[in-house]
Amino acid sequence: MPLTLQSQLMGDVVVIRCQGRIVAGAEVDSLQAEFEKQIRISRKVVLQLAATDYIDSSGVGALVRVFSVLKGAGGDLKMCELSPRIRRVLEITNLLNIFRTYPSEKEAIAGFSQAPRSRHSALGSALYGTKIVCVDTSRDVLAYLNALLRRSGYEVFTTRVVDEAMTLVYSQMPDMVICGPGMLGLPTGEAAVETFRNSKPGMPVLLLPPDFSTAEEGQAGVDLVNRVQSLLGD
Q1: Residue 8, number of CB atoms within 10 A of its CB
Q2: What is the pLDDT of residue 119?
Q3: What is the DSSP letter of 111?
Q4: Three-class secondary structure of residue 183 per DSSP
Q5: Rounded distance, CA 7 to CA 225, Å?
Q6: Burial status of residue 93 (CB atoms within 10 A of its CB: 0-12, 13-18, 19 or more)
Q7: What confidence category does residue 233 fall into, taking pLDDT thresholds of 50, 70 and 90?
Q8: Is 218 or 121 the better-scoring residue by pLDDT?
């Protein structure tokens, strides 16, 4: 089902009601445009997801990115009325605690009166000192990888530019590099992968599949974390 959006200002809180799938392409673009429009009105946003039953990796990445922008500007993004499938996706990828979730719009709106969590606490912190550099052309994919891997205890560096990725590899000496499908589509992508592999003997370079951004988010996230743990010997 194509994504349809309805927004309503309730006091000083904007409620955005979604119906349909939140997936890479026109759906994520329209949701992003609606966020950008509404946060000019209020930086307090509630996303109502009762009629949303599917979200892919790009969709989750877009939500994480908007959350970070709002928190950085002193606002917040809360979710309510999550469908069982969306809740399950966020649970199995360990991302549920990034967002405050509520059973109803009324409770989500009231949640803005509660003491906020710190952004550091919400996004997690690096527990093991293991560094991962992620490079891809998509901001949403990078936001998703950053949130997913940080919640799994890794220290994450992200960039959309191959030259910046090279600098990060040589300056941070990471334990792994993850290359997204967008980066691999660049003319210099294959050469960059070889440079990453040669920069630190034995360092794994994980290439994400072409359909990663459009894969079912829950399974894609679980598979990625399992693969990372396997390659790093965790």
Answers
A1: 13
A2: 45
A3: G
A4: helix
A5: 35
A6: buried
A7: confident
A8: 218
Distance, CA of 28 to CA of 127 (rounded, Å): 31
Q: Which two structure tokens, joined as six digits, stand for 217?
A: 């988010």
**Which residue segments constitute the domains of the chain, with CATH numbers given?**
4-116 (3.30.750.24), 124-232 (3.40.50.2300)
Model confidence at 120, pLDDT cuts 50, 70, 90, reads very low
Which tokens is 108 given? 């989500």
For the record, the structure tokens of 200 come out as 């630190």
Residue ranges in the chain assigned as alpha helix (H): 26-38, 57-72, 84-92, 105-110, 119-123, 139-151, 162-172, 181-184, 189-199, 217-232
Considering only the C-alpha atoms of the chain, give the largest distance between any 2 of them, rounded to a whole number of Å.
57
In whole angstroms, what is the distance from residue 31 CA to residue 18 CA? 9
3-class secondary-structure state, position 84 = helix
Average per-residue pLDDT for the chain: 89
- 176 contacts 208 by C-beta, under 8 angstroms: no
Tokens of 86: 């969306």
**For residues 9 and 217, what is the distance between their CA atoms, to the nearest angstrom?**
30
Is pLDDT of 125 > 90? no
Place of tokens 């960039």: 159
